[in-house]
Amino acid sequence: MLIVAIGVYAKVQKATGAVSLPDTVRDTFLIDPAVILIVVGVVMFFITFCGCIGALRENIRLLKTFSFTLTFVFLTQLAISIMGFFYSDQTRDALGKFVKKAIVHYRDDLDLQNLMDYIQKEFKCCGWNNYTDWSWNLYFNCTHENPSTERCAVPYSCCTPVPGETVVNTMCGFGVQTQKYLEANKLIFPAGCADKAVLWIESHLLLVGALALGLALPQ
């Protein structure tokens, strides 16, 4: 219920804080972290409610519902894991579409903006394939027709941190898309998040396996 409440609160805050176009709302709905929180919270509440009340009242129907839904969720997780392992290229393409939408709607959804900034800071990357992917965004688009003051820029989360910097320079990525890879490397992390994510998973296989096992065993 707490997860649902947080998701609803985040969604309401965004709805009252800005006016979005219908197309933008539709495109960002499935990748909206607030919506994902609401869906996960509702599913968790339904499963645990059936198990708790079913056991408390000794209701066979609720216990069967609990058992079936938990088994279904477990098998779904297992299937996704197996498909992600054996169909890595397709998984990468699907994640690429998700990130592309997040880049396109970077300025339209505060949650997506914070999520992309967090990913880029943690993995020290920029864009999906490389830093020029930010041209997908209306504000950062690098065409000459773009009147935005952020034309050819990248978000500050792509920038390499300056030692001892107390105030973040949000304009550090301005004009970076016009530079070559080696030149851009002096200011930002030019590598794409796709390659960085693969390298992280390969170097943390034990941790990934332990997390998967930690989720699977209690279920």
TrEMBL record:
The keyword Oxidoreductase does not apply. One of its GO terms (biological process) is pore complex assembly. Keywords: Cell junction, Cell membrane, Cytoplasm, Disulfide bond, Glycoprotein, Membrane, Transmembrane, Transmembrane helix. The chain crosses the membrane at residues 34-56, 68-87. Coiled coil: none annotated. GO terms for molecular function: enzyme binding. This is Tetraspanin. It comes from Dissostichus mawsoni (Antarctic cod). The lineage of its organism: Eukaryota, Metazoa, Chordata, Craniata, Vertebrata.
